[in-house]
Specification:
Strand order of the largest sheet of chain A: 6-7-8-3-9-10
Oligomer: heterodimer
Largest sheet of chain B: none
CATH topology of one domain in chain A: Rossmann fold
CATH architecture of one domain in chain A: 3-Layer(aba) Sandwich
Distance between the termini of chain B: 47 Å
Strand content of chain A: 25-35%
Strand content of chain B: under 5%
Number of strands of chain A: 10
């Protein structure tokens, strides 16, 4: 595995309820780049992402993160890899019983073991500033709007400065203005922290503005991969059909 | 005929698989309960929720159970001129059987269903997954606190149930029906032994394991089988949790009772 390749997916296959969802996915993601995985609903984008998180085991194939095949390692090594990953879930996945401050500080206390309240407070403030969400620390997830939840979840995902950040449809259910705001935040934080990002999305063409490269998943395989410009000029009918404006 | 055998076989395999998963879940829950790191704050929060918040319903049901027992026993024992046995009858029934069983059923209805629903919602909203991807063990955060809290609270709630029940029986037998106060309590001390009290404690501890096991398992694995996903799966899991826990409590009560008659 070349040194600048951080994530490599090799021949990933997965069937659910006897139906093939991933049919041999191959992907390579370089350090510091943002890759968008696009595809129709039900194409298997989120299933692919769950394999990258180690939440699902493939029927065959491998997922190498930092050179470690997370599909065949023990829990201890898997958790070591997971420590370098931040995830923004589709639903945000903020803990309902904790307020925003407790949610965002959760990885600092539980994953990094920080106990200095002053230090924790400063880092939470910085993270919330990064996502333009100051002043709502005491609110609970149920009191937040969809966009605020996504931003709080983004703050939680990046607060430990992970090497890799995975975004599962980060703008689903948001209005166009909020979608653009979330994409801008991803771009801004990527620039600031330099993480390697994978964004699963079907927000065309907005996602092209956020990503360095785009891969399209269709029929369980990556049918096209390249820069946003290359995707726009793709000759593959299904790609053209998917990304062309109505 | 072949398809019938196939359906039967698949059903049998599913049953065994489910049993195995439940067994592994219980093993993990016990294992993680006794190994560090300990999440005392979360366990304390659940003690408050399962224990303190159940006090009202336990006092109500305990009181009325003791009153009904005294009323029924009085008219039955009177036929034999044995009204003096009303105190031991009420106390023995409560301490050995009704206290632990009713307490467990009440906590199942109030706390067990809530635990299943909470964990189920955490599962479908990816909160449990988020523990995994943060390299944390979700058992420590959402399962162990409920196990620990149930082990602490069930015997205490049972003791409250028994005490209030005996007091309820006293109100009916002594204040309403005219049985002597000394007779009510005196005979109780003669006929209710420490062994009866310990049997009640053992029962309540085993019910604590059953209720926390069933309610946590059903919530933790919402949508893992063919019961679907989303709100409907949570609702099904909550119903399954209450029904399974309640039936298991009664079956286990009989099993234990038959060994310690």
């Amino acid at each position: 595995m070349p040194e600048d390749i951080v994530i490599e997916v090799k021949g990933l296959r997965k069937a659910l309820a006897a139906k093939a969802v991933l049919n041999g996915v191959d992907l390579r993601i370089r350090r510091g780049e943002v890759l968008a995985v696009i595809g129709a609903s039900g194409a298997g984008k989120s299933i692919l992402l769950r394999h990258l998180m180690g939440l699902m085991l493939p029927d065959s194939g491998a997922v190498l993160i930092g050179g470690v095949d997370i599909t065949s390692v023990g829990l201890k090594q898997l958790n070591k890899v997971r420590s370098s990953i931040g995830v923004l879930f589709q639903s945000g996945a903020l803990f309902d019983s904790l307020n925003v401050y407790e949610n965002v500080s959760f990885p600092l206390r539980e994953c990094l073991g920080l106990i200095d309240e002053g230090k924790i407070g400063r880092r939470v403030k910085n993270a919330l500033d990064d996502v333009n969400l100051s002043g709502i620390e005491h609110k609970y997830p149920a009191e937040l709007s969809g966009g605020m939840k996504k931003r709080a979840a983004l703050a939680r995902a990046i607060i430990t400065n992970p090497d890799i950040v995975l975004f599962d449809e980060p703008t689903t259910g948001l209005d166009p203005l909020l979608k653009r705001a979330i994409h801008a935040l991803i771009r801004k934080n990527h620039k600031k922290y330099g993480f390697t990002g994978i964004i699963v999305s079907h927000e065309i063409p907005d996602i092209f503005e956020v990503s360095d490269r785009v891969a399209m998943l269709h029929g369980g395989i990556i049918v096209e991969e390249g820069t946003p410009e290359a995707l726009r000029n793709s000759k593959i009918p299904i790609v053209r059909e998917f990304i062309s404006p109505l | 005929m072949t398809s019938f055998v196939r359906v039967l076989g698949r059903g049998g395999l599913d049953f065994l698989r489910g049993l195995g998963k439940r067994g592994i879940f219980l093993f993990n829950a016990i294992h993680y309960s006794v190994t560090p790191p300990y999440k005392w704050r979360l366990a304390w929060r659940q003690v408050w929720f399962i224990g303190y918040m159940s006090l009202g319903v336990i006092v109500m049901t305990g009181g009325f159970t003791g009153m009904v027992l005294a009323l029924q026993l009085y008219y039955t024992l009177k036929k034999f001129g044995a009204e003096s046995m009303i105190g031991p009858g009420v106390a023995s029934s409560l301490v050995r059987e009704l206290g632990p069983v009713f307490t467990a059923l009440m906590v199942t209805a109030r706390g067990g269903s809530a635990i299943t629903a909470e964990l189920g919602i955490m599962r479908i909203s990816e909160q449990i997954d988020s523990y995994y991807v943060m390299a944390l063990n979700p058992y420590k955060y959402v399962v162990v606190p409920n196990f620990v809290a149930a082990i602490v609270c069930f015997p205490l709630l049972t003791a409250v149930f028994n005490t209030v029940g005996i007091w309820g029986g006293y109100m009916v037998a002594v204040k309403l029906l005219g049985v002597g106060s000394g007779v009510y309590f005196g005979e109780m001390q003669t006929f209710v032994s420490a062994r009866d009290i310990w049997l009640g404690v053992y029962k309540s501890l085993s019910f604590a394991v059953i209720v926390s096991w069933v309610s946590c398992y059903e919530g933790f694995y919402v949508g893992a089988d063919s019961s679907g996903f989303g709100a409907k799966a949570v609702s099904r899991a909550t119903t399954a949790s209450v029904v399974t826990a309640s039936v298991s409590i009664l079956v286990w009560d009989y099993t234990l009772g038959s060994f310690f008659v």
